[in-house]
Write a structure and sequence with these properties.
With about 140 residues, the chain is mainly alpha-helical. It has one domain. The chain has 4 helices and 2 strands. Strand 1 and strand 2 form a beta hairpin.
């Protein structure tokens, strides 16, 4: 895993998102599954049970691909990074509407955007296949 930035980032982010997903259930007792307002995780990030499950699924996917291979981790980092980039941008428009089924707040948007930058940055820049320099292999 040391030789692959994608594997390392996927594994670390995966473990963190799994932990966040589990901790989220500690603050969402009595919160509706898709409530537009939820409990505050760490006093800042708003979550509901659906949001917690999303964190668990994303964490599991990242951790698993980080343990499998650099190619799998790279694909997961790029895919999940792109989803987080979209969610981070669209999320600003969902707050205060019935479409906010993940109970997102402003802190969530900035965290999703930060995650997107790291995941996409590593996914797109690291573990590139060496380019052939005109030689026949």
């Amino acid at each position: 895993m040391r030789s692959s930035p994608n594997r390392l980032v996927a594994a670390i982010f995966g473990a963190v998102y799994l932990l966040v997903g589990l901790l989220g259930f500690a603050v969402t007792g009595g919160v509706g599954f898709i409530a537009t307002e939820g409990g505050l995780l760490l006093g800042v990030f708003e979550v509901n049970p659906l949001h917690n499950i999303a964190h668990l699924l994303i964490g599991a996917a990242l951790l698993a691909t980080g343990l499998i291979s650099a190619a799998a981790a790279k694909a997961a980092n790029i895919t999940i990074g792109a989803v987080y980039l979209l969610l981070g941008m669209v999320g600003f428009f969902l707050v205060g509407t019935a479409l906010n089924i993940l109970a997102l707040n402003t802190s969530d948007h900035f965290l999703h955007l930060a995650s997107a930058i790291v995941l996409l940055g590593v996914g797109l820049a690291a573990d590139r296949s060496p380019k052939l320099s005109g030689r026949t292999v």
